[in-house]
Amino acid sequence: MHLNEEELEVLRIIENNSRIDLKDLAKMTDLAEADMEITLKKLEDMRVIVRYLTVINWAKVDEYHGVTAMIDVKVTPKRGVGFDDVAKRIYKFKEVQSVYLMSGAYDLSVIVEGRSMNEVASFVSEKLSTLDSVISTTTHFIMKKYKHDGTIFDQTEEDKRIVVSP
Amino acid sequence: MIKTSYVSRTIAELKPSGIRRFFDLAANLEGVVSLGVGEPDFVTSWAVREAAINSLEEGFTSYTANAGLYELRAEISRYMEKQFHVPYSPEDQIIVTVGASQALDITLRTILNPGEEVIVVEPCFVAYAPLVTMAGGIPVTVQTSKADDFKLTPEQLEAAITPKTKAVLICSPNNPTGTQLGQEELVMLADIVKKHDLLVISDEIYAELAYDEQFTSFAAIDGMLERTIVINGFSKGFAMTGWRLGFVCAPKEISEAMLKLHQYAMMCAPTMAQHAALEALKHGMQDVEDMRRSYRRRRNYIVKSFNEMGLDCHNPGGAFYAFPSIEKTGMTSMEFAEKLLTEELVAVVPGDVFGKSGEGHIRCSYASSMEQLQEALKRMERFMNNHGK
Ligand SMILES: Cc1ncc(COP(=O)(O)O)c(C=O)c1O
């Protein structure tokens, strides 16, 4: 899919702040507001913009109980459909946040979220490892998130410059 | 008691920088949103900072060669060739300095005999005229105007030249106007410079921050390589102001003379900063590109917003300053800036500190986060509603 420079610029901006005002976004990219609306709609329709997300550091919230695990999965690919078929069967589970096909020691990397270690463990043992083509799974629980999707958690960069300078 | 006569007359007669004075005003207030800062809001990229830490860990704590680490000069040479198509040999045409500031200083002190004139194009960086004076020369200022987008015209240049003129000091993209000179404009100026056998000191510290048009170095214009001294550095494009690292590229004869001065006055630039700069040039160009993109967005945003609120603003092609006119408020730029500071807690720099032709304007740096800019513009809009007409 070929995008023009304005469309690319829109993506770069809203990737970091999807709440930015349409008017400001238009000013920043030198587009008219109406054109900006059309551009956004187009990018959404093409599913280049898939979803507007908020990055939340849940670890800060006492009320939140949840765990994330990264699971290395080895599978036997099926004739004709390769890995796609088993990947599809896995990604349809609501517990599954991401699925990647990997090169190297294992085939699929599956990220699973649950309310407790128990919940994740039973998902792995009852749902994931019992799939026909799954040969083995190795589960790693995430203990602390330092940086997620390019965002450093627990960091406030204050402006260290003096107020007026040459 | 200390006698003031202990201070040299040259220094005693220098005016303190207007920026300094305004800084003192702003520094005593709380909750100020600042558009007064002349440096990037980015912190130097981590890879570069890490290279400096590593250099300390490895124990690189001694002097380098006077002209700078050879490796760094070689990298600067490649950079100048690749980025600006100007060939400078790392052996004898490049000196690594303590910021572009020191590069300017040794340039002027190397070329000037007492009483020789340097043409300084205003509005400009506050240090130019004092540096010329301190080098024993005479600054001859030329006033550009908004009508010409603050570009020096060939006629103005021609008119300012006298038998004593030694050099023309040009800054593009410019601080404070953001004005960038295009290739054709440089060619026209170059013709006059060649006709009168002058030198050009080209301050290209903002070269990496050109948004609309490809940047052209003065040294890349036909016949100018042998009469141009290029000042550049890491402060702005690489977000490394505090590292104090710049460089100067010049024809061999001048560069060798300059090295004598640099060697006696400074020995060499700081070693860890040089190691950091090496990393910046080798692997930092993507960071420069990302920062340039970000400035460009903010430039579009602030310039549009100014024009909407009645602060008439030309579109600056580079650097990170907007220079809107405040004439229609009837205030001087100093009055405007002081009122804006005390009433709305927004710091901008009054245009007249950059020279007479800066009067009627304010310098607003958009090297600030979008959130800060939005807040500043909200306050300025309120200010303009109260004082606009
Ligand atoms: C036009 C211009 N030249 C030179 C400098 C000084 O740069 P450095 O930090 O490399 O000494 C500045 C800094 O504001 C500047 O605006």
Automatic annotation (TrEMBL), chain A:
Q: Which Pfam families match?
A: AsnC_trans_reg (PF01037)
Q: Which SUPFAM superfamilies match?
A: Dimeric alpha+beta barrel (SSF54909), Winged helix' DNA-binding domain (SSF46785)
Which domain of life, per UniProt? Bacteria
Q: Which positions fall inside the Transcription regulator AsnC/Lrp ligand binding domain?
A: 72-144
Q: Mind telling me which InterPro entries this protein's record contains?
A: Dimeric_a/b-barrel, HTH-Siroheme_Decarb, Tscrpt_reg_AsnC-like, Tscrpt_reg_AsnC/Lrp_C, WH_DNA-bd_sf
Please name the PANTHER family in this protein's record. HTH-TYPE TRANSCRIPTIONAL REGULATOR PTR2, TRANSCRIPTIONAL REGULATOR, ASNC FAMILY
Question: Could you identify this protein by its name?
Answer: AsnC family transcriptional regulator
What does the record give as the organism's lineage?
Answer: Bacteria, Bacillati, Bacillota, Bacilli, Bacillales
UniProtKB/TrEMBL annotation, chain B:
Q: What is its EC number?
A: 2.6.1.-
Organism lineage: Bacteria, Bacillati, Bacillota, Bacilli, Bacillales
Query: What GO molecular-function term can you cite, just one?
Result: transaminase activity
The prosthetic group or cofactor this protein requires is: pyridoxal 5'-phosphate
The GO biological-process annotations, alphabetized, read as: amino acid metabolic process
Keyword Transferase set for record: yes
Task: Kindly report, in one word, the top-level EC class recorded for this enzyme.
Answer: transferase
Positions of the Aminotransferase class I/classII large domain: 31-379
Please state which protein family the record places this protein in. Answer: Belongs to the class-I pyridoxal-phosphate-dependent aminotransferase family.
Gene3D superfamilies found in the cross-reference section: Aspartate Aminotransferase, domain 1, Type I PLP-dependent aspartate aminotransferase-like (Major domain)
UniProt keywords, alphabetically? Aminotransferase, Pyridoxal phosphate, Transferase
List, alphabetically, the SUPFAM superfamilies matched: PLP-dependent transferases
Protein name (Swiss-Prot/TrEMBL) = Aminotransferase
- PROSITE patterns given in the database record: AA_TRANSFER_CLASS_1 (PS00105)
Q: Which Pfam families match?
A: Aminotran_1_2 (PF00155)
